[in-house]
Recover the amino acids of this structure.
């Protein structure tokens, strides 16, 4: 696969950092844990058109929607635990972090490039 600069598109990724304790408004631990990610990092790579399918089920829609990202940057730190902002920016107009829209499904490392299979997810604030 080729990695032409003119084909590259901008997206953002955040790396998994572990779990953190959730605290309430008084600073007390609630007993819940939340996944923690790094700050979003800007990257350019080839993002191939989406493919997938949507099924209607009794309890709603089952959306299987994937894109493929290819890069020749062999030191790219993205893994299966990373999250991505591909179709939107990671911050809104007031510098608030918006929910990510893709997760990494699989990483395939070759001699000259890395291919990421990514799946669309629906995330909500709160």
């Amino acid at each position: 696969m080729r990695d032409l600069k003119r084909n590259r598109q901008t997206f953002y990724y955040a790396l998994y950092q572990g779990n953190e304790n959730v605290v309430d408004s008084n600073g007390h631990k609630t007993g819940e844990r939340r996944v923690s990610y790094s700050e979003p990092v800007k990257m350019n790579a080839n993002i191939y058109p989406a493919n997938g399918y949507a099924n209607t089920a009794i309890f709603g829609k089952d959306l299987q929607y994937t894109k493929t990202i290819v890069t020749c940057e062999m030191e790219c730190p993205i893994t299966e635990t990373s999250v991505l902002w591909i179709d939107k920016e990671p911050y809104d107009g007031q510098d608030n972090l918006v929910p990510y829209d893709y997760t990494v499904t699989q990483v395939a490392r070759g001699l000259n490039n890395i291919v990421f299979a990514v799946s669309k997810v629906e995330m909500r604030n709160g």
Notes: The CA atoms of residues 3 and 25 lie 48 Å apart. The mean pLDDT is 87. The radius of gyration is 17 Å. The chain has no helices and eight strands.
